[in-house]
Amino acid sequence: GAGVSQSPSNKVTEKGKDVELRCDPISGHTALYWYRQSLGQGLEFLIYFQGNSAPDKSGLPSDRFSAERTGGSVSTLTIQRTQQEDSAVYLCASSLVGGTLQSYEQYFGPGTRLTVT
Amino acid sequence: QKEVEQNSGPLSVPEGAIASLNCTYSDRGSQSFFWYRQYSGKSPELIMSIYSNGDKEDGRFTAQLNKASQYVSLLIRDSQPSDSATYLCAVKLGRFGNEKLTFGTGTRLTIIP
């Protein structure tokens, strides 16, 4: 079946502009995660959506970052007034999160490479 | 102490040898453990999951879990140059209400032909 998809694959923007990144999870997966990965660094958790529960926003680095998930499926990560330090690869993942241990397996999309000039 | 800890490497292993990657975690109540492979410029790919103490084998890969020692490892037998990548350990920590995976920073593995 189709995996996690993300768009755009690459985004170049000028400092101070707003950007929107999109994630389409695996069909039927109830949980959706956003991560950021700077060059040569590990994964930085940003935000987590699970079903109809309030999202876990504990990883968002500033109030310039926000995300929403419409209809329990597609998610959009918005970065306002972008800064050069926002340049990174933004990764989306999804998982079932049901009643089994296996349901926590996360599957990643290909990522969006954001460059702020 | 980090919640999930890995040696960042780089780890260099000759082709055909066994590569051993290690990961420790802080939460004794953790139950789900995962290994991801990430090639340079690509996103992480799930390669192994393990939930019970002992070994789990899948082809050339063996995951080992020791909950008493809070230790999980990944062995790659007959290492190939295509195994050169960063390997991420991920743990679903046992804290109540925590549905996320916590990732280690990854170990960079290089297989030398």
Overview features:
heterodimer; A: about 120 residues; six-stranded mixed beta sheet; four-stranded antiparallel beta sheet; about 0% helix; B: about 110 residues; mainly beta; about 55% strand
List the helices and strands and how they pair.
The complex is a heterodimer of chains A (117) and B (113).
Chain A: E1 5-7, E2 10-13, E3 19-24, E4 31-37, E5 44-50, E6 65-69, E7 75-79, E8 88-95, E9 107-108, E10 112-116
Parallel strand pairs in A: 2-10
Antiparallel strand pairs in A: 1-3, 3-7, 4-5, 4-8, 6-7, 8-9, 8-10
Chain B: E1 4-6, E2 11-14, E3 19-25, E4 32-38, E5 45-50, E6 54-58, E7 61-66, E8 71-76, E9 85-92, E10 102-103, E11 107-112
Parallel strand pairs in B: 2-11
Antiparallel strand pairs in B: 1-3, 3-8, 4-5, 4-9, 6-7, 7-8, 9-10, 9-11
Explain what this protein looks like in three dimensions:
The complex is a heterodimer of chains A (117) and B (113). Helix content of chain A is 0%, strand content 44%. Chain A has strands spanning 5-7, 10-13, 19-24, 31-37, 44-50, 65-69, 75-79, 88-95, 107-108, 112-116. The termini of chain A are far apart. Chain B is globular and about 45 Å long. In chain B, strand 4 (32-38) and strand 5 form a beta hairpin. With 113 residues, chain B is mainly beta. In chain B, strands 2, 4, 5, 9, 10 and 11 form a six-stranded mixed beta sheet that branches. Chain B contains no helices and eleven strands. The A-B interface holds A 31, 33, 41-43, 45, 48, 50, 56, 89, 91, 97, 101-102, 104-111 and B 31-32, 34, 36, 42-46, 49, 51, 88, 90, 92, 99-101, 103-106.
